[in-house]
C-alpha cells in the first residue's frame, strides 16, 4: 500500500475503487469519525495541461452544496499530489445499475430523473453548467440516491449561464448537436440535451445515438432521429422529444423541465432545491466536535466559517452532519 504522508493520521487508505484519466479514486476512512470517504488522488506531474481542471472542479464543488451533487470534504495539496476527499458513493455508477436492470420502470426512472433535474437546476441557478452529464458521471449512494460527479469540465461563464461557450468538450455520445458542430453554445442548453440522453438511457436501457464509428455517430446526432421502443408511454416520448431538439432554441428549458407533469407526477409542486452555498450551523454536530477536540463550539464554528472550507475540521463537521442527516447517532466510533 503506497503511504501518502499527507494523509497520515487523518485518513486510512483502503482499496482503489476506480481510476479515470489523470486520477485514481481510493476508498478511505476518515479517522476522527470512522466515516467512509472517496479520495481522488492526482499526481501533479501526470496532470500536465489538465491541472486547470482540478482547480475548476475544486472551486465548483466548494460552492455546490446539494444532496444530489457529490460532496467535497477536504482538499490536501502537497508538492507532488492533490487529494480531493469526497462523499463515498457505495452504490456505484448509474450506468451499471441500468445495465443490471436492463431498463428501469417509468416510476424508477422518474425518481432518478427528478434528482438529476434538481441537481442541474440548482447548478444552473448558481451559473454553473456541468457539460459532461452522462450515466458514468452519476453515482448511487447506499440509499440509491443519485450523486453527480466529475466537475472538471463544468463552466461558470463570468457573464452568467446565458453567456456563450466555445470549448468543445464532454463525450460525443451525450453531446448536443451545436457542441459537436463546434458552434457557440449555451451551457444550460447542452446540459438539457445530455439529460435527454440520460432519460432515454433510463427508460430504454440503451442510448438514442450510438455508433462505434465517430462519423456515423455524429450523423445520427445531427439527424436527431432515434428509436422509440414500444414500451415508452406517450408522455415519456414527448418529454424526451422536447429535450432532444436539434435546434437549442426549440429545446425545453430547465425551468419548464422543473414544472413538467411527467417529472412532478402531475402534482403542481415543481422540482425544488435549496439555494445553499454555505452549510448550515448545527449545534449538535458542533458540540460533538467540541467533545472530540476540547475546543468550545462557538470557536469551532468561527474557525469553520473563516476557513477556506477544505480543511480537516470542515471534513469532520460535514461528515458528522451527513451522519446526522442520515438519521444516525453522532456518537464517535
Ligand atoms: C471514469 N471517471 C472519469 C472516473 C471514475 C473514478 C471512480 C469513481 N467511482 C466509481 O467508479 N465507483 C464505482 C465507486 C465510487 C465511489 N465513490 C465515489 C465518490 C466520488 C467519486 C468521484 C470521482 C471523480 Cl473522478 C470526480 O471527479 C468526483 Cl467529483 C467524484 N467517485 C466515486 C466512485 C467514478 C469516476
Structural description of this entry:
There is one protein chain. With 333 residues, this protein is an alpha+beta fold. Helix content is 39%, strand content 15%.
Task: Summarize this structure as a short list of keywords or feature phrases.
5-stranded antiparallel beta sheet
Short description:
The protein has helices spanning 44-47, 51-63, 94-101, 106-125, 177-180, 187-204, 214-223, 234-243, 254-258, 261-264, 283-293, 297-306, 312-325; strands at residues 11-20, 23-30, 36-43, 72-77, 81-87, 92-93, 138-140, 146-148, 164-165, 185-186. By secondary structure, it is α+β, with helices and mostly antiparallel strands.
Q: Which helices and strands appear, and what pairs or packs with what?
A:
Blueprint: E1 11-20, E2 23-30, E3 36-43, H1 44-47, H2 51-63, E4 72-77, E5 81-87, E6 92-93, H3 94-101, H4 106-125, E7 138-140, E8 146-148, E9 164-165, H5 177-180, E10 185-186, H6 187-204, H7 214-223, H8 234-243, H9 254-258, H10 261-264, H11 283-293, H12 297-306, H13 312-325
Helix pairs in contact: 4-6, 6-8, 11-12, 11-13
Query: CA-to-CA gap between the ends?
Result: 24 Å
- How many strands? 10
Helix/strand-derived category reads alpha+beta
> Which percent range fits the helix content?
25-40%
What percentage of amino acids are in beta strands? 15-25%
For the largest beta-sheet, the strand count, sense and barrel status come to: 5 strands, antiparallel
Oligomer: single chain
